[in-house]
Q: What sequence folds into this?
């Protein structure tokens, strides 16, 4: 009997042990399955979040930065001049506009920024020893007496090869500068009677006298923009038509300035006609509904909604038009066309341009 009881007791103990082990294994497997499922769920959730975040980041980059969109900002301009610590133009000024490039009417880069700097040789006395980057812009408004003020003959002819007629033409251009741009206010009678020679007659002998200003520009071996004129390039006898007729193969893209109101269709039609006429890629290096002078005289000439609509319609068209390579809004410093206020903060116009 004692042996039977012992056998039964051992059998019961073994069975209980096996049952306990089975329950433990089942429990562990369930926990493992649940943990694995949870881990997978978390991992999937993190993956989805990452993808969403990446999508958001990419979306922002695509929507807010256009490689075509740029801005022109003078390198020495100071905001908040009446403040104790006025703010100068810097990289944050450029980057807040979300532009792909900028220039400053100079050949020298003023500061490092995420946007590409494009140099310009402003006039015949503005040549640096070297030029950085892929592009160089030609002379600024050579047809304007208060800007680079250069005749087509002067741009394309070496000084030592200028004819008497060409020199007379240059001399007349210099007189127009004195009359229209002198701070003292010149007049034809005063100019005619003065014994002081005009700036056209003052010449310092240089090693560059045997080459034209345009020859010098070409020596940089960059993709070169035409001079940007102040006047309508489509007009018969325009400065640009004359230049193009003699140098069409000596520049890579045409640069334009435009200040003709808030009708986007007028602007678009002009660019279409320019391309049809000159058959060159287009850079609009200055454009706005108003010039600085007009903005100063009539700062509220156009409503904010008119200006915003002009920016949106023209920007969308230029971004999708293949032959428009670059464009840059001109900051008028005053009035509704200004991108920044007196303290350097974005205006409503600046915010609209930045968002394009």
A:
């Amino acid at each position: 009997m004692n042996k039977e009881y012992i056998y039964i007791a051992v059998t019961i103990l073994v069975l209980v042990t096996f049952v306990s082990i089975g329950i433990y294994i089942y429990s562990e497997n369930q926990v493992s399955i649940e943990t694995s499922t949870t881990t997978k769920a978390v991992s999937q959730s993190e993956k989805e979040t990452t993808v969403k975040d990446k999508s958001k980041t990419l979306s922002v980059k695509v929507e807010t930065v256009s490689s075509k969109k740029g801005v022109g900002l003078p390198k020495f301009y100071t905001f908040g001049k009446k403040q104790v610590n006025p703010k100068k133009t810097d990289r944050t000024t450029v980057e807040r506009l979300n532009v792909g490039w900028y220039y400053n009417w100079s050949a020298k880069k003023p500061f490092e920024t995420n946007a590409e700097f494009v140099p310009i040789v402003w006039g015949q006395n503005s040549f640096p020893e070297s030029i950085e980057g892929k592009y160089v812009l030609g002379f600024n408004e050579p047809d304007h007496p208060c800007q680079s003020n250069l005749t087509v003959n002067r741009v394309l002819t070496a000084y030592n090869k200028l004819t008497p007629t060409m020199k007379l033409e240059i001399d007349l251009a210099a007189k127009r500068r004195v009359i229209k741009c002198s701070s003292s206010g010149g007049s034809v009678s005063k100019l005619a009677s003065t014994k002081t020679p005009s700036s056209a007659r003052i010449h310092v002998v240089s090693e560059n006298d045997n080459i034209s200003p345009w020859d010098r520009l070409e020596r940089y071996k960059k993709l070169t923009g035409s001079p940007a004129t102040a006047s309508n390039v489509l007009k018969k006898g325009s400065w640009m038509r004359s230049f193009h007729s003699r140098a069409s193969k000596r520049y890579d893209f045409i640069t334009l300035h435009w200040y003709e109101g808030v009708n986007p269709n007028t602007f678009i039609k002009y660019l279409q006609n320019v391309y049809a006429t000159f058959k060159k890629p287009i850079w609009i290096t200055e454009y706005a509904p108003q010039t600085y002078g007009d903005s100063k005289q009539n700062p509220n000439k156009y409503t904010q909604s008119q200006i915003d609509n002009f920016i949106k319609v023209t920007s969308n068209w230029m971004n999708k038009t293949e032959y428009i390579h670059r464009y840059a809004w001109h900051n008028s410093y005053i009035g509704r066309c200004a991108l920044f206020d007196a303290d350097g903060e974005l205006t409503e116009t600046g915010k609209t341009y930045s968002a394009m």
